[in-house]
Amino acid sequence: MVPPPPTDIPPLDDPEASIYAQRARVLAELCTTEFDYVKDLKFMIRVFLLPLQFDDYIQQSEVVAIFSNVEALVEFNETLYKQMSATLNFSQGVINDPQEFGRKELGRVFLALADFLKIYVMYCMNHVSSLEVHAACMKKYKAYNAFVKDAQENQCNGLLIKDYLIKPVQRLCKYPLLFRELLASTPESHPDYAVVKKTLEKVNEVTAQVNQHAANRDNMLSLSYFDENVTGYGSRMVEFLSRSLIIDEILSVSQVVKNKVPKGQDRHVYLFNDVIIFTKPSKKKEVFKDEMPIDSSTIVSNMNIEEFSLRISTGGTTFVLYCPNRGILTKWNNHISNHLSKLVDSEIETEISTESDSTNSVSTESGLHSPKGNKRRRRDSSNRKRRSARQHRESGSFTSRESRNDEDPIVASLLDQVHVLKMKNKKLKKNEAKILERVEKLEEQLQQLLSSR
Fold first, then answer.
1. Are the CB atoms for 70 and 78 separated by under 8 Å?
2. Would you state the pLDDT for residue 201?
3. Does residue 240 come out as left (phi exceeding 0), alpha (psi in the -120 to 50 range) or beta?
4. Where is average pLDDT lowest: 44-58, 147-161, 224-238, 402-416?
5. What are the residues facing 251 on neighbouring strands?
6. Distance separating alpha carbons of residues 132 and 129, to the nearest angstrom
7. Half-sphere exposure in the Cβ direction for 96 (13 Å, CA)
8. How many beta carbons lie within 10 A of that of residue 28, not counting itself?
């Protein structure tokens, strides 16, 4: 029989409570919530999973799809709770001395089992599809529908099956919060401090992995949806594994032709990390109409607050997006401008890396450059480039600004693009001149060194 969790812990906001009394309260919360969690998982297995495994309410493949690896989870967490109970020694369920209880070490129990938390990745990844399969079965099978409703009404105290299915996801999200509290209430001199800190890092790694898998899954679903629901683009969207959807919305769109802006047409606009795609909305399938590649030379300009419009130009092609209100206009402008800023920063980093590699190569061959000096020069170069990029963006080339009345919009857009290219060319020439100048100095020093010998 697993003992119940401890009780009678002083509240955290008690001004008289010492750091160890506070730690006792966090340890008690860890134990209490773990005990309740294991109990809930066992209840779900007994009330829902086991009957479905032995009766033909639905297909067994659908049972697995709904409950995933929940049996492995309950086995892991029951083992975890038993070890917590044995380590903290609360067999009576009552803590007489919170100060002493708060000094006990629990970190090693979690650290030893932390790698097993990865079994949660599978469950969390399948959670959305689990609910989808459950909903489909409720419509498809009358017997399953009746079984679930009867169990929910008579055994679940007002909860639904989906309230139990989400508990493992909630529990995984709860661990980082609890361990942050435990670390905050553990003195650095305590033997458990380093172990709890390491455990928190491992828990964060697992939750980050789950979040990344969820993001990848959602993005792949978005790409698959595009492939299935858009005609005329070809079945090639999912081929772009690095492509990610940033935002999409139905807007009115015009393509500027010979300095004229025709009447806007409804388009479903998809902003990906490398391209903007325009499709024609339809009740059945959307129709691909046009696309605009996105790179660091793309210009977002002439945000017209009165018309709720945003002008985007690249490679001589210009589109005007008309938004229904200012909020949506600002949202699109921010998404596009922020993404372009990241592209520019990435390009600057590449240039810095290339310049550093070149400088290091020359310095290594000559043997006259100190690593400390290289590091300082790279940092100064990076700062100069970032200031230049920031000034460039603030001048209006990459951030929004209201329409300029003194220039033709197309001319303004082209001028912006020319300015970008000039800036890039200027940077490259400047870097080249610096490298050549440095090479000349090194050659002079080398000649002096050889002459002295």
1. no
2. 92
3. beta
4. 402-416
5. 267
6. 5
7. 3
8. 22
Which of 217, 33, 221, 214 is closest to 124 using CA atoms? 214
Specify the length of the chain in residues: 453
pLDDT of residue 214: 76
Q: At what angle do helices 19-44 and 167-184 cross, to 10 degrees?
A: 170
Give whichever of 55-69, 264-278, 354-368 has the largest mean pLDDT: 55-69
More confident residue, 94 or 323: 323
Find all residues with CB under 8 Å of 282, minimum gap 6, and list them.
none
Which token pair is 434? 């610096």
Q: Contact, 67 vs 49, CB < 8 A?
A: yes
Residue in the structure block whose two tokens are 């190569």? 361
Task: Give the number of other CB atoms < 10 A from CB of residue 37.
Answer: 21
Q: In the predicted model, is pLDDT for residue 23 greater than 90?
A: no
Q: Encoding tokens for residue 370?
A: 């100190």
- Rounded to the nearest integer, the mean pLDDT of the chain is 77
Q: Which residues contact 276 (CB under 8 A, 6 or more apart)?
A: 269, 270, 291, 292, 294, 312, 319
With tokens 């297909």, the residue in question is 59
Cβ(91)–Cβ(110) under 8 Å? no
CA distances from 280 to 75, 288, 399 (A): 52, 6, 28
Say yes or no to pLDDT of 389 above 50.
Answer: no
Q: Which residues, in sequence order, are CB contacts of 398 under 8 Å at separation 6+?
A: 299, 300, 337, 340, 341, 344, 392
In angstroms, what CA-CA distances link 188 with 102, 103, 183, 206, 441? Answer: 14, 12, 9, 25, 52
**Rounded Cα–Cα distance for residues 357 and 363 (Å):** 10
Give Rg (Cα) of the chain: 31
Q: Is the pLDDT of residue 366 over 50?
A: no
**CA 166: distance to chain centroid?**
20
SS3 state of residue 323: coil
Give residue for tokens 């009766």. Answer: 55
Strand partners, 268: 250, 279
What six digits make up the tokens of 149? 């409703």
pLDDT of residue 368 exceeding 50: no
pTM exceeds 0.85, yes or no = no
* Helix, strand, coil shares, percent, the chain, to 5: 65, 15, 25
pLDDT digits (tens, 9 = 90+) for 332-348: 888 887 777 777 666 66
Q: What is the pLDDT of residues 256-282, one digit of tens each?
A: 888 788 888 999 999 888 888 999 998
Residues contacting residue 233 through CB under 8 Å, at least 6 positions apart:
226, 227, 277, 279, 288
